[in-house]
């Protein structure tokens, strides 16, 4: 199997060294005669009590690394040595793994490994017990027989001739289909000495399932490969803005018009109407879409950090700052869009600095005097009332002009209630997918009921309502009760005799598909509003009635209905 002192053109490649108990060489051949090798192995051998010698290791520090197989007896150490590229993996395996026989036994007897080994004449040399059992053969009876007389449809002889491996072939044997592999075996000289036939899967069905799964995954990959460039291009573009109402149609038109122009856009509208979505759509339809939009939520940054967040800072600019300094959002937004959300919440002192940057694109990091520049397109959004803030000097007029080259108002949901069916259905599907819930659907009258509500929390509130219903409805059919809107529905409800403060045209919402629930919700909101007004004006009914926009007598009537004791 292994020849000692094998010589090649490059000199002695291998050898043997036998050491006495004291590390003295008692026999040496080939590489084993090298004094350097003897000295190194002698040291290792003498220290074997401290550091036991592994069965196989590499001897370093010689002219070439040498692989050593060690066979230690009580009194002598025997080492077989060879240069790294001169070994035989089987010899190494058998020498260094003392349970190598168990591993081989496992391969030939494992109940799941049905194998047949043939020699170069296609005569059976070995058949694993499980394979013998399958063919109804007594142990060893097939040995020496032509494989074709034992295994029907065998192609082992063909594989011996072709020298080519066959993997995953279906072979029918004894009326059963099996998925098999056939492998020719060569010796180190490259001659085919035999072949192994092996059952890979017991039935093609298992392979079919696997292949169907692979096919499905391939299709999925193909889909994403096709879609990815488009999705990258489009991002959350216009198609993510659900709705076919006139209001949404106009909104989309405006987005498409303004997106390619490199002007500042201010998005106004109540909370939850979709300003964020609109900002993304504008960015995606602009030439700056190549780089991701940079987002800043002015309301979410603590006042003392707004400046550092926006302009960045130099190392050690303030306590707690990162040592190497940090890039600010303006700098990050170079060549892309900067989305300043909740700009109405920006402190006045920061407004001045932001204005300066907006005027010429230049800024300084906190703690630095170097002027930097950034070329960004600004989109800002706020649900605040700018008229009021400008009047009370809470927002700088010059900044307002800068940020609002174009202002887009995103309409509240109550102005486009005809979009509710589309939105509700899309959210139903989205949340069923997200929560892995199946087969939920809206029962009769639910969509009409949803359309009858004024949605002061807008689309975000509708979304939450549907999500709650998907999760908590006990039956597959989602009922109006499942969609009950929480009490904090609050101020948006149009009260009898009270103008809806949000509505432009004061149209009443479409008639309810579920009058009782609507009435209940209205009554609750009415009560809340009335009590809130009374608290605000410390029980002064005249002022409360004025505030609510109803007559005093109407307020008294309402109070008597609520609680005669009030
Ligand atoms: N037309 C729409 N189609 C589908 N989803 C929408 C639509 N409009 C808004 N949404 C969804 O409603 C939620 C709230 O929208 P968004 O955050 O854009 O509102 P916003 O106006 O920015 O609110 P805020 O002023 O509170 O920041 C988001 O999950 C958004 O995806």
How would you sum up this structure, described in words?
The chain is an alpha+beta fold and 566 residues long. The chain has 4 domains: 7-98, Profilin-like; 102-202, Beta-Lactamase (2-Layer Sandwich); 238-409, 3-Layer(aba) Sandwich (Rossmann fold); 414-562, Helicase, Ruva Protein, domain 3. Helices cover 38% and strands 19% of the residues. The protein is built from 20 helices and 23 strands. The strands form 7 sheets. Strands 4-3-7-6-5 form a 5-stranded antiparallel sheet. Strands 9-8-12-11-10 form a 5-stranded antiparallel sheet. β11 (176-186) and β12 (192-201) form a beta hairpin. The radius of gyration is 41 Å and the shape is elongated. The chain binds adenosine-5'-triphosphate (ATP).
Give a topology summary.
Blueprint lengths: L6 E2 L2 E2 L1 E6 L5 E6 L4 H12 L9 E4 L6 E7 L4 E7 L5 H8 L3 H10 L5 E5 L4 E4 L1 H7 L11 H4 L5 H7 L3 E8 L2 E11 L5 E10 L2 H31 L11 H13 L6 E4 L6 H10 L9 E4 L8 H6 E2 L12 E2 L1 H4 L4 E5 L6 H13 L1 E3 L6 E3 L3 E6 L3 H6 L5 H7 L2 E4 L10 H15 L6 E2 L3 H6 L6 H15 L4 E2 L36 H22 L4 H8 L3 H11 L4
Parallel strand pairs: 13-20, 13-21, 14-17, 17-20, 22-23
Antiparallel strand pairs: 1-2, 3-4, 3-7, 5-6, 6-7, 8-9, 8-12, 10-11, 11-12, 15-16, 18-19
The structure holds adenosine-5'-triphosphate.
The site of adenosine-5'-triphosphate (ATP) has 17 residues, from helix 9 and helix 17.
Protein name: Fis family transcriptional regulator
GO molecular function, one term: sequence-specific DNA binding
Keywords: ATP-binding, Coiled coil, Nucleotide-binding, Transcription, Transcription regulation
């Amino acid at each position: 199997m292994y020849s000692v002192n094998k010589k090649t053109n490059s000199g002695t490649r291998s050898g043997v060294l036998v050491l006495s108990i004291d590390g003295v060489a008692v026999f040496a051949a080939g590489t084993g005669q090298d004094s350097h090798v003897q000295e190194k192995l002698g040291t290792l051998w003498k220290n074997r009590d401290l550091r036991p010698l592994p069965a196989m290791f590499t001897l370093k520090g010689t002219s070439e690394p040498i692989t050593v197989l060690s066979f230690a007896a009580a009194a002598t150490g025997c080492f077989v040595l060879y240069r790294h590229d001169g070994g035989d993996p089987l010899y190494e395996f058998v020498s260094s793994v003392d349970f190598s026989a168990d591993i081989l036994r496992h391969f030939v007897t494992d109940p799941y490994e049905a194998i047949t080994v043939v020699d170069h004449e296609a005569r059976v040399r070995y058949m694993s017990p499980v394979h013998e059992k399958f063919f109804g053969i007594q142990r060893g009876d097939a040995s020496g027989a032509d494989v074709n007389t034992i295994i029907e449809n065998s192609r082992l002889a063909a594989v011996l001739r072709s020298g080519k491996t066959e993997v995953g072939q279906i072979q029918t044997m004894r009326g059963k289909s099996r998925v098999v592999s056939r492998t020719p075996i060569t010796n180190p000289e490259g001659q085919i000495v035999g072949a192994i036939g092996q059952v890979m899967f017991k039935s093609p069905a298992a392979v079919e399932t696997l292949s169907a799964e692979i096919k499905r995954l391939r299709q999925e990959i193909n889909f994403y490969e096709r879609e990815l460039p488009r999705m990258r291009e489009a991002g959350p573009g216009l198609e993510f803005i659900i709705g076919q109402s006139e209001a949404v149609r106009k909104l989309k038109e405006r987005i498409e018009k303004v997106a390619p122009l490199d002007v500042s856009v201010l998005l106004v509208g109540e909370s939850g109407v979709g300003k964020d979505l609109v900002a993304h759509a504008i960015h995606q339809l602009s030439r700056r879409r190549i780089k991701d939009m940079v987002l800043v939520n002015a309301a979410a940054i603590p006042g003392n950090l707004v400046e550092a967040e926006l302009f960045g800072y130099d190392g050690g600019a303030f306590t707690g700052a990162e040592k190497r300094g940090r890039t600010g959002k303006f700098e990050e937004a170079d060549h892309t869009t900067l989305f300043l959300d909740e700009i109405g919440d920006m402190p006045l002192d920061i407004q001045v600095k932001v204005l300066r940057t907006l005027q010429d694109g230049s800024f300084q990091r906190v703690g630095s005097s170097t002027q930097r520049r950034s070329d960004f397109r600004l989109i800002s959004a706020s649900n605040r009332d700018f008229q009021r803030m400008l009047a009370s000097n809470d927002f700088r007029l010059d900044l307002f002009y800068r940020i609002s080259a174009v202002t887009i108002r995103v309409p509240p949901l109550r102005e486009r209630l005809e979009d509710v069916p589309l939105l509700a259905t899309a959210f139903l599907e989205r949340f069923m997918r997200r929560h892995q819930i199946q087969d939920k659907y809206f029962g009769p009258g639910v969509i009409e009921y949803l359309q009858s509500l004024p949605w002061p929390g807008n689309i975000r509130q509708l979304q939450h309502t549907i999500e709650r219903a998907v999760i908590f409805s006990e039956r597959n059919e989602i009922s109006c009760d499942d969609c009950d809107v929480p009490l904090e529905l609050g101020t948006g409800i149009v009260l009898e005799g009270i103008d809806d403060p949000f509505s432009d045209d004061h149209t009443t919402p479409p008639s309810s598909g579920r009058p009782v629930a609507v009435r209940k919700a209205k009554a609750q909101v009415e009560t809340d509003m009335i009590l809130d007004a009374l608290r605000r004006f410390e029980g002064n009914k005249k002022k409360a009635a004025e505030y609510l926009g109803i007559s005093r007598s109407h307020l008294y009537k309402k109070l008597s209905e609520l609680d005669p004791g009030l």
